[in-house]
Input
Amino acid sequence: MIVDDAIALVDELLQPEGLNDLQASVFRYCWQGEGYQEIADALGYDSGYIRTVGSKLWQQLSDIMGKKVTKSNLHSVFRQYNQPSDQEKEISPQETIATPPEFPGLPLNANSLFYVDRHPIEQRCAQEILQPGALIRIQAPKQMGKTSLLYRLLEHGRAHHYKTLRLSCQEATTESFTDLNSFLRWLCRSAARKLKQTPNLEQYWDDDLSFAKSNCTEYFENYLLSNINTPIILGLDDIERVFAYPQIAQDFFPLLRVWHEEANEIDIWQNLRLIVVHSTEVYVPLDINQSPFNVGLPIYLPELKLEQIQELALRYGLNCLDGNMGAEALRPLMEMVGGHPYLIQLTLYHIWENQQQKPLVNLNNILRDAPTDAGIYGSHLRRLWETLNSSPYLCSAMKKVVSNDQSVTISPLAAYKLQSMGLIKLAGNLVTTRYKLYQDYFRSRLELNP
Output
């Protein structure tokens, strides 16, 4: 059972009053395993009040369902309530989902059935982006769902009649990174076109290159923000590409900080809402008083939890992966790939696609071949290997990591690049391989290439 189905059932059980909005939010957060303090922080209430709301709701449900309901047993109670047993679900055929899933790899659109919320992140971001002059910073390794979250926030803005645009730094040509002036002209021209405005750059651009930042600021303030009378959400995606050009980064990122702070003094800048998305730690030295990476709302996307993976499995119609038996079946998968959203999606997609096999048999076969080129993760692993193998420096650093079962230290630059590829985890200055999948695959590869 997914959380939306559970909420619908609770609303039905509590008729004629039904669930109010606060009760529904508390139920949703508790279903996702959040504590009362985290729920209170996310919703803006006192934790004692949220605890009272929850306790009263659990008591109501206990009286109606004839079984004690608590915050900690929601999944088991609702799984058993008017549902077949785990054993029956194991032998029953898979449900057919209404919309066949697309092959995983691209960001999920804003309304995708296969996007699983990581509460309270989505709610916090949705609240923050409605604030005047908001700045949200989303960071996570590649293929963790950053752009999918950005799409949802842009859709949330459109629902509030905001103008929205996403600019990926991957769209910019190499020539756009020639210098700061070229990059900012690309930014302004691209923003205007996506907002369906005629660029008119020359009207606001001084030929003196030393005025590039002033030109860009004037363009946004006196042209884009002045011509559009609603808030504008600007999503800057893949900005780690800018890190490779320190001379641009050291001027561009402080400019974003200035725009964010202008909202405190100039009303028109309150209409600009910024979302900055990147895959790595900031590796460009910036003055702490000028950096945009220490202001605004920081969001680091975590991996999926077991409950969220089970919810996603249900959306694929894989009922056998629900409940206690499903949790046990999924543990070896999580040991192999953690809660990596893309790798989990890929696994569930292949189980769904290969419906002639029992899902649990299929999962065992997938795990058997996982760290090989023949497995379903082969393309993903080969892409990583091609990038790694192109740099003897990175190969040497990765070999040191995978050759040790304990944490090791490597150079800061190597750690930065390997983390950006999603291959390692950092704990202070210590490094470990991110997943068993990578440990096994790259240990084999690097032993073949000493």
